[in-house]
Design goal:
By secondary structure, this protein is of the alpha/beta class. It is built from 15 helices and 9 strands. It holds the Pfam family NAD_binding_2.
Length: 297
């Protein structure tokens, strides 16, 4: 399938899935999309994406079905049910789950797919809405290497795929990614607060740090949002919390202690409890402001 037009069923066209499906269509692939909120899928019709009323219809004739839903339980509901995706997909097609789910869930889905003669890849992504739009997503892929090679060109349309190992290891890589993201957001938030309280211009402090050892994508992309209190969601805080909770649960199974992540997880827990779960994950600075009795808005 490396150089040919592929029929793709795309399940979930939200903040991330919408631009990803659009890039596939713009690359010349035949895309049929479904979303729980139909208007989000309908917005893609102008660029040639066919909109399906059911996810089964989107998957029926697809060579590859891409799933970009919000969580493991939602994915399981859509994929594994008696009238789910696997029941609708044709033999020898490939299911690519790009949602962030647990390692165990990915492994169970891979087993269920194999029993139906369907290839399976867990391929979570990082890069946020901008990465989805620009097709520069980091794509961490678990599954059989032959399956990865078969559709790697399709994945390249959405970003930079790397095969990291058997089913479930894509999700393991994503959890490692999310630990770094969450913990760095917390540290950058503290740096912004320290600059503010110490009397410096935090925007100038950020500028001074660029290019040094403290530089990072978080410092570049999210520090300005923290300073401007601009938290329109690219990656909602509630999903960041989901990922840190999943990572901590897996670490416990592996007899690992993750003290930094555990602390950051508690911050995100409180952020969501205070009603900020729909804001971007960079809004964690709001929780640190609360703890320091500083104005939040």
């Amino acid at each position: 399938m490396k150089d040919e037009q592929i029929t793709v069923g795309f399940i979930g066209t939200g903040i991330m899935g919408g631009p990803m499906a659009a890039n596939l269509a713009k690359a010349g692939h035949r895309v049929r999309a479904w979303n729980r909120s139909p208007d989000k899928a309908q917005a893609l019709a102008s660029i040639g994406v066919a909109v399906s009323e059911t996810f089964q219809h989107a998957a029926e004739q697809a060579d590859v079905v891409v799933v970009m839903l919000s969580s493991g339980p939602v994915c399981d509901e859509v994929i594994l049910g008696p009238n789910g995706l696997l029941a609708a997909m044709k033999p020898q097609s490939t299911l690519v789950v790009m949602s962030s789910i647990s390692v165990e869930t990915a492994q169970q889905q891979a087993k269920a797919a194999a029993e139906r003669g369907i290839g399976y890849l867990d391929a979570p992504v990082s890069g946020g809405e901008k990465g989805a739009k620009d097709a520069t997503l980091a794509i961490m892929v678990g599954g059989e290497e032959i399956t990865f090679e078969r559709i790697s060109a399709l994945l390249n349309v959405m970003g930079n795929p790397v095969h990291v190992g058997p089913a479930g290891t894509g999700q393991l890589a994503k959890l490692a990614n999310q630990l770094i993201v969450a913990n760095t957001i917390a540290t950058v938030s503290e740096a912004v607060l320290l600059a503010e309280r110490g009397g410096a211009d935090p925007a100038k402090v950020r500028e001074a740090l660029l290019g040094g050892f403290a530089d990072s994508t978080i410092l570049r992309a999210h520090a300005p949002r923290m300073i401007a209190n601009d938290f329109a969601p690219g990656g909602p805080a509630k999903w960041q919390l989901k990922d840190t909770q999943t990572a901590i649960a897996l670490a416990k199974e592996l007899s690992l202690e993750l003290p930094v992540t555990s602390l950051v997880n508690s911050l995100f827990t409180d952020l969501v409890a205070h009603g900020d779960g729909e804001l971007d994950h960079s809004a964690l600075i709001r929780e640190l402001r609360r703890r320091n009795e500083m104005p939040v808005d």
